[in-house]
Each structure stands twice: as structure tokens, then as C-alpha cells.
Amino acid sequence: MSELIQALSAQEIAGIDAEIAHVPYRSAVAIEALKIVQAHRGWVSDESLRAIARHLHMSAEELDGVATFYNLIYRRPVGEQVILLCNSISCWIKGCDKIQKRIQEQLGIGLGETTSDKRYTLLPVTCLGACDKAPVLMVGEELHENVDTHSLSRLFDDGGGTSE
Ligand code: FES
Description:
- The protein is an alpha+beta fold.
- It is built from 8 helices and 4 strands; from the N terminus they run αααααβααβββα.
- It has helices spanning 2-7, 10-20, 30-41, 46-55, 60-69, 89-93, 96-107, 149-155; strands spanning 81-86, 120-125, 137-139, 142-144.
- A 4-stranded mixed β-sheet has the order 2-1-3-4, covered by helices on one side.
- The termini are far apart.
- The structure holds FE2/S2 (inorganic) cluster (FES).
- FE2/S2 (inorganic) cluster is lined by residues 86, 88-91, 127-131, 134, 136.
């Protein structure tokens, strides 16, 4: 139990247990448990993943399968804000490649990279469900529609440092 508490805080365990109380079996809260830990730590380390798996009576491999399938669970450290750039068909047609290039120029990072000041991480994502407003991206929790190079300048006008 002490090993579990080291890898998961009491608050995280309480949050997960509150979810477990609503379902017939512990593994049913796998995604919620990962989200709870990510909300506290910004990402889910191997150590945390193993602890969550033990708490849910799952194998680490099973839970890692869930975590890697669900692309909003981060298995590596990310910046304070994650930029999710949609690269599905509507956004592709409307020039998401140009948006990506501009972000790379503006923040000095490519896909999967984090600015040196740890403010931003740029990740590709499949359809964000706002295809009629393509191209679309999210910065943190905020959705930005009909993005163009001018709106990008306003979004990241203070830059973000260079990539690592
Ligand atoms: S294709 Fe980009 S939001 Fe749907």
C-alpha cells in the first residue's frame, strides 16, 4: 500500500475510488483514473501507470493499451499547454499543413516536441468534430476554429522558445 501511495497521491486514490463506486468492476474506470492522475501531474508516468493498474486489478500492459489508444492521455511529459492540431481530411483540405509550418516557425517546435520553456507541446490529433470550421486546433481546453496565420500570431505572439 505504501508503494501505491508513493506513486499515487491520497487525493488521486480518493478520486479514483469515487469513480469505482459507480461501476460494477474496477477496470471500468481505467480512462477516468488515467485522466485523474494526468489532471494532477500533467502526464502519466510508467510508475503511476503501474500503480493505477494495481489499484484497478489490471495488468500494466492492459492499462497501457488503454492509455495509448486514447490519444489525450500523455505518456511523456508535456508543456503547460498542449496544442492539438487536427490533421484529418477537412482540416487537411483547408491547409492544416500551413498552420503546422507556421507554428513550427513561431514556436520552434515540430510535432511531438515541447518548447524549451515548457509552455507548449505540439501534437497532431484526428478530427476534433468542428470540420465545418476547419482548420481547427486546441490550445489547452480552448478550441480555435477557422485558424489562419493572423490568428496564430495572436495566439502565440510572445513566442515559446526553441525545441528540445
Ligand atoms: S477534420 Fe479537422 S475538425 Fe474535423
